[in-house]
Write the structure tokens for this entry.
Amino acid sequence: MPNITIDGIGFDAPEGWTVLEGARFLGIDIPALCYHEGLSPGGGCRLCVVEIGEGENTKMVSSCTYTIEKGLVVHTATEKVINARRMILELLISQCPTSKTLQDLAAKWGLQQVRFTPKWEDCICCGLCVRMCEEQMMAKAIGFVNRGNELKIATPFDKTSEDCRKCGACMYICPVCTVRCEGAAPEGVLCGRCENSLQPTCLEFYDNFSCWMGLKGECGTCVGEKFEEKKED
């Protein structure tokens, strides 16, 4: 079994596991919008990005699609990773600001602004509904159409599909079907109503949020200790 290290924790992971599965086994929180147990990994939303490697030889990968290998070193909450997730959230929220799931993630990860022009669409093309329809419902009634800015999910030729059972599984799994509390016509792109539990208090002192008490920034202990060290110096 591969011997890997995730956020300083070394363990033997079963062969074939992904980095995301290994992290969740250890209780490490990695957001994964387009991932769902029971479905094949998509890697489309990129929110689950992590940093692998050490020193200058690191790179960003999607943890839901990257298979664990022997000697792998993974960092799930470095400053580089957190900033990447916030940028991805900006792009996703600019696509669909009415999603409660996206708004909750924005509050959790400390997103303060969206610098992109909102499109107010009702789909972020994560592909969960497509995989659910094909892999669990065995229907293949919907799929991706077009490319680039024209990409969308639809039935063949935009006509009513005879394969659709109207089971509602696509709506059940969709991360943007649950509208945020302000309803379908909110005033702003970010609602800012939810408590922000991941204040970036530690990033100016440490290059990682993770600590044994949870995520750095939740308790503020490590920051207080750092200030005390500065005072003593």
